[in-house]
Amino acid sequence: MDAEAGLDRRHREALVRIRAREDAAFRARVPRSLELASRAGTRMPDGVPMAWMAGFYRTPVLWVSHGSGPVLTDVDGNDYVDFNVGDMSSVLGYAHPRLTEVIGERAAHGVQMFLPVEQALAVCDRLRQRFGLPYWQFTLSAGTANTEALRIARVATGRQGVLLFDGGYHGQLQETLWAGGEGGAPPAPEATGLGPLPPGLAVVDFNDLAAAERVLAQRRTAAVLIEGVLTNCGTVLPDPGFLPGLREACTRYGTLLAVDETHTQFDLYGGAVTRYRIAPDLVTGGKGIAGGIPIGCYGMTSALAGVIEANPADELGETVGLALGGTLFGNALSLACAEVVLSELMTRAEHDRIAGLGGRLSDGIEDAARAHGLAWCAHRFGARSGYCLFPERPRTAREAHRSLDPLFTDTRRVYFANRGVWDAISSAGPHAGFAHTDRDVDNYLGILDGFLDEMCAG
Ligand SMILES: Cc1ncc(COP(=O)(O)O)c(C=O)c1O
Fold first, then answer.
1. How far apart are CA 153 and CA 333, in angstroms?
2. Residue 2's pLDDT band (boundaries 50, 70, 90)?
3. Which mutation among 164, 287, 384 tests ligand 1's pocket best, with the greatest number of atoms within 8 A of CB?
4. Architecture of the domain made up of 97-345
5. Domain coordinates of the chain in residue numbers?
6. What architecture is the 9-95+348-457 domain classified under in CATH?
7. Torsion of CA 216, 222, 224, 225, to 10 degrees
8. Which pLDDT value is given to residue 347?
9. CA atoms within 13 A on the CB side of 74
10. pLDDT tens by residue, 202-232
């Protein structure tokens, strides 16, 4: 039998059957989640505390009570080994004893001080070791870190424009929720509620260096904001030479290079900038670096630190400073947790260990596909894996979207959930976390084998 790319009619029919059976089994397992959802419907739009939760899971929303290590437990008492790792926010695992200790210590001394705490210094040093940049600032989310990085870039360059790459996601920012326009059309909004297209904003395909250079040559672009590896539409790796070429073009045209490491910092130690040896002007991040306590961060060159220092905001409003900061940013609890997580728990050795687990997931997905006559491959970037339903890995978001098949992802997730594994959201694949072991990977791959048996049985 020749190996097949994509999903054929027989697979889809099987998926529809599996989905119907597994959805019914799922609903039967989560009566308390269903009850909470129905009560919540009169209190929160769509019955969820954050609106996207209603749209992401096309099964009833799972309400959770607690977690331990790699396992989260729902309000009905069902356990799930979590391979979504909170889209990197809970990549450390749940209730880590050392983190619990630090939270307790900090709580006993005040979690929010509105003044600097000493732990900030150690966090800056750890981030500098990873990303090479000397100066750091802290927010409470990666999206806000991106907002601030772009503001600094505008002031530093005196330009307004931002260059983005199709398929990238950088948070719910006015400047970044735009997709590439078809056939030379202007970028299109990816969400409602945005204002008009920001001036000078451009979106080009990932890996299209010539298109990026054409935008930069107009000298209107303050910053390029890019993930070194696209992670929000499956995984798209940079072609050899793409990132170094982009770095060089930014320098040539006076544009700053901002690399968003929010996800990739957990894929490999030092993220994409280390793996591809690029020297950005700004790096942004956040999510799980404080073990799940809210935090965002961005690093910058000495020159950009100078721009902040030259644009101070003062309490009396006598100077017009850079629009940075928030009341709870630089938060004492976030920084205490980040110090311990980055120094003791997410060590280089631990990063290497989970990158190995990610590699095992990718190998296992490819072996399972091959064994079932499917000409697929796996995404792979350190601890990150995922399903590419074609033999060639994608080079652009458009190519990557062909593998984001909701019927396949949703059916897989509910099938896995009913067998005690929480699989990833559609735009990502299973990701190894710091609490996972080889046994968890074996368990995942064992369930995958059964799932593909049924999907391919016809
Ligand atoms: C690459 C990247 N940057 C930034 C963000 C925004 O992070 P947050 O939701 O913490 O603001 C995300 C969120 O998924 C992301 O994937």
1. 29
2. low
3. 287
4. 3-Layer(aba) Sandwich (3.40)
5. 9-95+348-457, 97-345
6. Alpha-Beta Complex (3.90)
7. -160
8. 98
9. 25
10. 999 999 999 999 999 999 999 999 999 999 9
